[in-house]
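Letters spell out the chain; backbone shape is given numerically. Take this protein:
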Amino acid sequence: MSTPRTTRNTGNTGTTARRRSYPASPAVSLTERRKAETRTEIARAAATLFVRQGLRATRAEDIAHAAGIAPRTFYRYFASKEEAVAPLYAAGAQLWTESVRAAPAHLTLPEALRHAVDRTLAPGVGVSASAWEWARTLIRMAHTSPALGKVWAEVCQASETELAEALAARLKPAEDDADNVAEAATPHLRFAAAVAGAAVRVAVETWALTEAPPTGPAGPAALALGNLVALGDFAWEAPQG
């Protein structure tokens, strides 16, 4: 996840990925980019108020005022105040997914997942240490507020779909590069993405509920790497035959 501002095991489990570059996410239009920027601005305003004065004391109207928009504009983007922080929850997952997609082509799937963790969950690389403290607070809120917890769960589920497509892109034969960028992930890859997503989600949640710093053996990156390594010989690709 993101915030208001924003060891390694190299085993060869799985099939070696093809030596090629993988397609990036499709480009978005200027209009969509502006909408995304507005959503992020609203999300940052919401997160700041949630942390400063608490979730219960914050109204949607307060968020709109802090973001410099009218309440009716707020409701064009979000149905509730809790949903307003969804872009921040989603940003970290999207960063990790894109790092998996962009990992060096010679890495196997488990190696690519660990590579992405190193580059997105370690403070100072993907997100700053201060940003992780914002993340800790927002994740803790998700554990105490059913409405906010629902938003967090929905973001995590959506990220699994995106991760499955990224895994499928890595396994796509080189001769299919000219095909559509959006990948149709197999049921097994969707399952693999759910497993990998759970490994990272549990690591981040476990860290957030402690007072441990975002670096070191109890930080989110170390915990996530430990969870991924613990999966051992998990079949990241569907068994043949």
In short: Residues 3-25 have pLDDT under 50 and may be disordered. Residues 85-175+182-230 form a domain with the Tetracycline Repressor; domain 2 fold (CATH 1.10.357.10). The two ends are 38 Å apart (CA to CA).
